[in-house]
Amino acid sequence: MNRKAALALAGVGTALGLTAAVVVLALHRSAPPARCAPGMEALGPRCCGEGQRLEGGVCRGTARRCAAGLAVTESGCVASPRAVAIAGGTLRIGPGDWEAQGQITPRTAEVSAFAIDAYEVSEARYAACVAASACAPLPLRGEPGRAISGVTLTEASQFCAWAGGALPTSDQLAFAAAGAKGRRYAWGDTGAVCRRAAWGLQGGPCGEGALGPEITGSHPDGASPEGVHDLAGNVAEWARPLDAALSVAEVRGGSWADGAASALRSWNRREIPVGMRSAEVGLRCVYPLGEAERAGGVLPR
Questions:
Q1: Which pLDDT score, from 0 to 100, does residue 131 have?
Q2: Looking at domain 84-294, which of 3.90.1580.10, 3.40.50.720, 3.20.70.20, 3.40.50.2300 is its CATH number?
Q3: What is the band of 105 on the pLDDT scale with cuts at 50, 70, 90?
Q4: DSSP 154-169
C-alpha cells in the first residue's frame, strides 16, 4: 500500500471513530437521568443501597455503598443526625409562578435564626425515643434509615421535646426551603426531577406502587444550599401551630406519593387534622441556634 492510500484509510478510520463517539454521546444524553443517586440502586419504586435487595417494599441486607452523606450499616443506609444553622431573614411568600396563582396569599414575615434537622426523623431515631419511654410506639417497617411516618401532631411534638427541640413553625419550614432569595424549590428555582426528591413514587412519574417513604438523605442532589435534605418530597412535615386549640395543622414539603411537581414548591402547604395518621406525613425538629452551634451541629439524640 502506498503512502497516499494509507493516509486515506487512516482518515476514514478517524472519521468513523469520531462518528461512533458522537453517536455514543448522543445516546448518553438522550437517556433519561438516573432516578437514584450514585451509591443507590433503583429497585421497584425504591432507591436502595448498592447490593441490597427489595423484599415487601423494604430494602434488605448490607449495602456495599450508599448515597453521599449516608453511612453503610448492616441494616442499610443511615443518616447520622445533625442540625444545620439557618440564618434569620425575611420570608417572602408570593405567587412566584403560575401554579401559585390563587393558591397562596402574598405576605412577608421576619424569621429569627434557628437550627433545624438536616434529615427527616428516621425510624432509628424514633425507636430510640420509644425505648426511652418518651414516645408512643408505632408500627415500624424495620428499616432504620427510612423516614418515620404515620405520626400524629402530638406524637411529633413529643419526639422533638425528647430530642431537645420543638416542631418547626410553618414559617421556619418555609424559610428553610425558600431561603432569603425565595427559592421555588429547596435546591433552587428549576429542575423538579426524580433524582432530586422522593416524589411521584406511587402512581408516577418517578415510580409505581410505593407503599411509603424513602431513606432520609438518599437524594442529596435535592438538599438546600444550607445542607438540609428532603425539604421537598419523601414525607410532608408537621408544622407547629401557633394556636394549640386548633383542630387542624399545616404540613409542608410534599411527599413520596405526590404526582405533581407543584407539591414540591417551597410555598406549598396543606392542612390536615392534628390527630391524623398518614404514611405521607413525618417530621423534623428545630433547636435553639446557640445550643446547636456549641455542639458543632451534632445532635445528642
A1: 98
A2: 3.90.1580.10
A3: confident
A4: HHHHHHHHHTTSBPPB
